[in-house]
Every structure is written in structure tokens, then in C-alpha cells.
Design brief:
With about 240 residues, the chain is of the alpha/beta class. It has one domain. The chain has six helices and seven strands, in the order αβαββαββαββαα. The protein has a seven-stranded mixed beta sheet, with helices on one face.
Length: about 240
């Protein structure tokens, strides 16, 4: 996970801890194990079950933090070839969700997966599927105190949509062989961990500032930089062509 991504998550933690008299707590629940079926939530988009119960799916985790909806689940996959990834991409495209996304990471594997959740180094995980639950967030939003610490919501946060993060440095990933369906958004980035959109006044301010000035470039090691360059070229090649 990039330093910028972790700063975004932990800045929220700091805001909550310094703005509440309650003691904060967090943990990780194992929600899936290799070879065992995953129960499909009614709050998930139709078609997600085919992904979380794909034969290549191994472990799954839910990272939780006190007073949050804790709706985001993360699932790991054993990828033997590009065929495995392309099959998952087709299943992703088939989900009944307004947003279906792929994130291409310049890393070789994941590290942090949420508030306090991390996976061991050298885990060789080539892909993580992430998914939030909008119904769970909506119920939380009805009862959560407002403002929530220093966070002033303008509406209920938006859940993480069906998202497949692919780690481009992994030896099982051959970027040039990926077939991204037209119905899937593809960007560079890391595993989503909290909300797709916070819907806070501060988020609106930060987005406006980001539109005015670009973020400073992250310094990468040579292998990560090479992967990042490959991702940039892939995105450019696969970007939608302007309509005449």
C-alpha cells in the first residue's frame, strides 16, 4: 500500500480518536477459507457470488474499527495464469452494479487491507477482490452521530463497488494478456479499504484542491517504477476512444 493511501486511512482514525471520549478498537475477522463456500449477502450486487466462490479464491477478511459500518470485505485469489484473471474479469463485468472496477497496482503483492488488517510479506497474492455493502452503510448512517467527530457528512457514504485489484509485479500477471471488458472501469491504484466516496464537506474541499493542482509524484524503486510505466502504457492503450 502506498504511503499516501495509508495516510488517508489513518488520518480518519486520528480524527475519530481525538474527537471522541470513547476508546477506539479494531480487529480482523476471517470470513473465508480456501475450499469453503462463502455465504452471499443480500446487500451485494447480483453476480458477486460467482466471484467470491470462484475455485481460485482462498482467504477472505473483514477489517473492523469501532463505530464504523465495517462493510468492506477482501478476498484473495491464487492466480496460476492469465486465464484465471480473465475469467474473474468476465465475472466482474457480469455483476449487476453501476460501477465495476479494476485497479492495477505497481506492487508485487498486497500488504495492508484495512484499518488494522495486513497480510504477511511474500504472500504472493496476485489479485484481491474488494466489496462494500451499501445497505449496511445506509443503516449505519441512520444512527451515527452527526457530525461524526470532525467529519460532516453531506449524504450517506458510497460503498466500495465490486473491485478487482491486480498486482502487476506478480509473476503470474502478464499485463499485455489481460482482456478488460468494456463494462469495467480500469485505473491505477491500490486496494480500496473504507468507502468509495465519503460524502463529507472535507472530501469536497480536497477534491476541489486536487482539481487545481496535481499531487506530488511518489518516489518508486526501479521495479515498481517499471511496473508503473507498464500500467500507464496499458491504460493509455485501453482508454476509450473519443467518439466522432
Amino acid at each position: 500500500m502506498t504511503n499516501q493511501s495509508w495516510r488517508s486511512v489513518w488520518s480518519v482514525v486520528v480524527i475519530l480518536c481525538t474527537s471522541s471520549n470513547l476508546l477506539a478498537a479494531g480487529g480482523t475477522d476471517t470470513i473465508a477459507t480456501k475450499g469453503q463456500p462463502v455465504t452471499v449477502s443480500e446487500g451485494w450486487p447480483e453476480g458477486v457470488g460467482a466471484i467470491v466462490n470462484d475455485p481460485t479464491r482462498t482467504s477472505g477478511w473483514n477489517s473492523w474499527f469501532s463505530e464504523w459500518p465495517n462493510d468492506v470485505n477482501q478476498y484473495a485469489f491464487e492466480i496460476a495464469s492469465t486465464d484465471d484473471l480473465n475469467r474473474l474479469l468476465e465475472k466482474l463485468a457480469a455483476t449487476k452494479s453501476e460501477v465495476r472496477q479494476v485497479r492495477l497496482s505497481h506492487l508485487k503483492e498486497p500488504s495492508g487491507l484495512g484499518w488494522v488488517t495486513s497480510v504477511p510479506k511474500d504472500n504472493n497474492i496476485a489479485a484481491i477482490f474488494s466489496l462494500g455493502n451499501q445497505a449496511q452503510i445506509d443503516e449505519w448512517y441512520k444512527r451515527v452521530r452527526k457530525p461524526f467527530g470532525k467529519m460532516e457528512f453531506t449524504a450517506a457514504p458510497i460503498a466500495v463497488p465490486p473491485t478487482l485489484t491486480i498486482f502487476v509485479q506478480n509473476k503470474s500477471v502478464h499485463l499485455e494478456e489481460l482482456k478488460i471488458p468494456a463494462r469495467v472501469i480500469v485505473t491505477s491504484g491500490y486496494v480500496p479499504t473504507v468507502f468509495h466516496k465519503f460524502n463529507t464537506k472535507d472530501e469536497e474541499k480536497r477534491n476541489a484542491e486536487a482539481a487545481r493542482k496535481s499531487a506530488p509524484a511518489e518516489t518508486l524503486d526501479p521495479a515498481a517504477q517499471a511496473a508503473a510505466d507498464k500500467i500507464e502504457a496499458f491504460l493509455k492503450k485501453n482508454s476509450p476512444k473519443p467518439q466522432p
